[in-house]
Write a structure and sequence with these properties.
There is one protein chain. By secondary structure, the protein is an alpha+beta fold. It has two domains: 113 residues, Beta-grasp domain (Ubiquitin-like (UB roll)); 210 residues, Nucleotide cyclase, GGDEF domain (Alpha-Beta Plaits, 2-Layer Sandwich). The chain is 36% helix and 32% strand. It is built from nine helices and 16 strands. Helix 6 crosses helix 8. It is elongated, with a radius of gyration of 25 Å. The structure holds FE2/S2 (inorganic) cluster. FE2/S2 (inorganic) cluster (FES) binds next to loops.
């Protein structure tokens, strides 16, 4: 038998070997947080190996990726990915009294699927242009009425195309579309966005003009990427949402509309899936703070078949290239 010692509390737990540090800890009721369900996708189970490095297995591929992203030193390991075969002394890194309390509640109250699931999704952000200035001119109750009417109309469109609104942030909304076939999903998400723009012009704007003598326009950004879908919030009040680089990127795509003077921009990942179905007016190269490389965004102005019906059967899509934007 080998022995694993957990600092700072000093518990010593025996192991026959071929167990992960998380498995050893669990047998001795040492709490090591595990926000991803011990699947090598988070860093909450990180520990520091104080002694016995050679008794620990090499990093798994998943652990290598996380260690690289988080810039872990070689002695910082993921407990759920580290198999021990010898005596080891371990220091818990994500652990204070509040952590112990929270982790025991978290682990007890979270069914496995609550840890989050990685999946590819279409992420759509829509934002009302100049909303702050708009809201300042009118009564708060009127603004709530207008916003709810707008959100309701957008929700109907999104639902009709197989998506759902995941979140509201002030005057902005985040909608998600999932599909087994990404091309099909891209088509639905693009159709939804175009119909949202149309609905704002044909339904919301005339209503606003009657009601407040004013109207507004919206900007939409659409991206396709990998997200972690999970539950966030206090235990009694958790709600499902998505997190990840792709969500932040989709938000940047939407923001780029302001700089580019466009209404609807899609990322290259989305464009690749629907390029034969859409009419594009312009392409924009952007560099995004905190991200390396340049990214191409495409301004979608309609569906190709509709554009061809208007412009002639053999009309071919062409688009202008705008100068680079820095977001
Ligand atoms: S619990 Fe998430 S990587 Fe170990």
């Amino acid at each position: 038998m080998y022995q694993v010692q957990f600092s700072p509390r000093g518990q010593r737990i025996a192991t026959p070997g071929n167990e992960t540090l998380s498995q050893v800890a669990a047998r001795g009721e040492v709490i090591i947080p595990h926000a991803c369900g011990k699947t090598g996708r988070c860093s909450t189970c990180r520990v520091q190996i104080l002694a016995g490095h050679s008794s620990c297995s090499p990093r798994t591929e998943k652990e290598r990726a996380i260690a690289h992203k988080m810039r872990f030193s070689p002695d910082v390991r993921l407990a759920c990915q580290t198999v021990v075969n010898g005596d080891v002394v371990v220091k818990q890194l994500v652990q204070d009294d509040e952590d112990v309390h929270f982790s025991s509640l978290y682990i007890k109250n979270s069914p496995p699927d609550m840890f989050g699931v990685e999946k590819h999704m279409f992420i759509l952000f829509a934002d009302i242009r100049g909303f702050t200035a708009f809201a300042e001119k009118f009564l708060p109750y009127d603004i709530i009425y207008v916003l709810n009417r707008y959100f309701h109309a957008m929700g109907e469109v999104i639902k009709r195309h197989g998506g759902h609104i995941d979140n509201y942030m002030g005057d902005a909304l985040l909608a998600l579309f999932e599909a087994d076939d990404p091309r099909e999903g891209a088509k639905r998400a693009v159709h939804a966005a175009l119909e949202m723009l149309d609905t704002v012009k044909k339904v919301i704007q005339p209503h606003l003009n009657n009601f407040l003598g004013k109207n507004f326009s919206i900007g939409i950004g659409l991206h396709y990427g990998l997200v972690v879908a999970g539950a966030i919030g206090a235990f009694a009040d958790k709600r499902a949402t998505v997190i990840g680089d792709a969500v932040n990127f989709a938000s940047r795509v939407e923001t780029a509309n302001k700089e580019a003077g466009t209404e609807f921009l899609i990322s290259e990942e989305t464009y690749d899936l629907v390029r034969n179905k859409i009419a594009v007016n312009r392409s924009i190269h952007v560099s995004i703070k905190g991200k390396t490389g340049k990214h191409s965004l495409f301004e979608v102005i309609g569906l190709l078949e509709e554009a061809r019906a208007k412009k002639g059967r053999f009309w071919a899509p062409q688009y202008d290239l705008l100068p680079e934007l820095h977001l």
